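Loading example: each entry is read as four labelled lines plus one structure line.
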Amino acid sequence: MPDDAGGRASTSRMRDVAQRAGVSPMTVSRALRDPSKVSEAVRRRVEEAVRAVGYVPNRLAGNLSSMRSNVVGLVVPGLDNSLYAPTIQGVSAVLRASGFQLMIGECGYSQEGEEALITAFLAQRVAGLMLHDTRHTALACEMIRRAGVPVVETGTIIPDPLDMVVSYSNHDAARAMVLHLHRLGYRRVAFVSLPAANNDRSRDRQRGYRAALAELRLEAEPRLMLEMPPGLAAGAEAVVRLVQGDAPPDAIFFAGDVLAAGALFECQRRGWPVPGKVALAAFDDIDMLRHVVPPITTLRLPRTGIGRRGAEVLLDRIEGRSRERVVVDLGFEIIQRDST
Amino acid sequence: MPDDAGGRASTSRMRDVAQRAGVSPMTVSRALRDPSKVSEAVRRRVEEAVRAVGYVPNRLAGNLSSMRSNVVGLVVPGLDNSLYAPTIQGVSAVLRASGFQLMIGECGYSQEGEEALITAFLAQRVAGLMLHDTRHTALACEMIRRAGVPVVETGTIIPDPLDMVVSYSNHDAARAMVLHLHRLGYRRVAFVSLPAANNDRSRDRQRGYRAALAELRLEAEPRLMLEMPPGLAAGAEAVVRLVQGDAPPDAIFFAGDVLAAGALFECQRRGWPVPGKVALAAFDDIDMLRHVVPPITTLRLPRTGIGRRGAEVLLDRIEGRSRERVVVDLGFEIIQRDST
DNA sequence: TTGTAAGCGTTATCAG
DNA sequence: CTGATAACGCTTACAA
């Protein structure tokens, strides 16, 4: 407790405001939450009293009493991954506009981590939950069901959501890019993704890649498929392994993180022309991909929109404006640039 | 409320657990928080009852009653800025290990935004506050003082903190880089930063630049100082303006965001050799700077450490292990690479 | 070791 | 429009 010297740390209650304004606490409560329910005179006296005593409402008490909550819990796989930033920002913007607070936690890409966070958020009695992953432990599902809390999953479109989904189809996006590369004339398209274990998005993308090959009556060659950890360095390693391997690809589709950029930087270092030696495509429209030389072909995903729309449908449910279990597919876009 | 079909959404209370275990609610409370205070037999019965009814403690009620809180509020200027990610992650890791929750908000680089968030967090009765900015509205300071909440500021080392500071000196870091460039032989070092209005970090860096020049008995030329918005595009624009201007610099120090990378990409596009045509230095050790061609000289800042250490000193105070108003300078490091 | 009583600071409800 | 009263679900303090 800093300084008891100047003004001691005292938190004033509604009661104090009431006394000072010469009304009952109940009237203060009303004046604060819906000024139209009290007389003009009282409203002003209360406002002044609030300022005078420096009153800050106690939402813990308010929430407990009203059995409502003004906080939403958001679980992301990893805070370090810059891909989640736009989504978080979208969520944050919408929540703030409605007077909600955002509680955030990272599950570390594990279902157990997610379960722990869900438990913690439920204990805080959050009004709603946003989950990036779409696979959960049985206990997590059970707890959510019992609590009756609305939930939005945002990682990828799935057929059997817990409740609501707002996302895009990782499967369709990956498939579309492979078809796009084929249309451009590439016949040996390699595929590099993040590890698919414990990651629905990666798995969906792999399935999309295979689906496209099947449609094109092309064989899925194991040596053209790689799983790499996230990071620029991994992308660099991947491009070297593929290009220097037997029967190298003419194009590489990097379905994750900044792998494609790492690969391009490696090509620059080695003097490999892109797309002359090998074409490169990426999965996310991060700013960097537009500025490197050459700019990299990629998918534009509705990251911010997922956050915004996700928060909106969640609030619609929380505030009783809707009872529907919506599934929103926000789509994607292919950005053709000079790397392919 | 999803599905009332299978099992209706009922939240069980401690009372229910107590009944089922054949003990009083108080005993359940004890069994849950400090199992050593109840008998072995009771502990087991309670545990089973908890599982049986799917009990999830209500921390709103708990916090209200105990007049303690297990949530910490964090205010960042912008969630989109990837620079804050490591700090947030550090905070998150430390808090989780202590059973604390993280409430997060973005103030949009404005003091008013920060004030609004502080008010909201105080209303949630957070146990502590972490602020990135080091300048605040008078009301914000007043509210924090009255609430008696411990606070950590993390943006830059300042002489008159609200309470505690954990950071590095932006002034010293900028100064050190300019001296470093001078030592390498560069005599006309330009300086590009983010707008300094409303940004203590930028201002500190500008002061550091000037301080270095003064020490070197060099004149601060206005045409060698630029303020640019964040982003790769701004860096590209800056390098062009400086290099094509009158009396161009031999080195450019980009003190913010990804400006330096944007500048390098522009040089690549134009075929300007770096550092042949102009040398480039950056301010933050983001992964990209190490992988581009050539790799860019920069400063390594203790981003994650600030989050971790900041959360630690905050928890020390919250949990009464310390009463000190610490100031922690985590320092910085110059990473010399091929761009200078 | 366990239980009882009295709040914590609000809001819902109902009466005036 | 305003106020009294009883929760909300838990913990503190004290008693048994």
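The CA atoms of residues 32 and 47 of chain B lie 8 Å apart.
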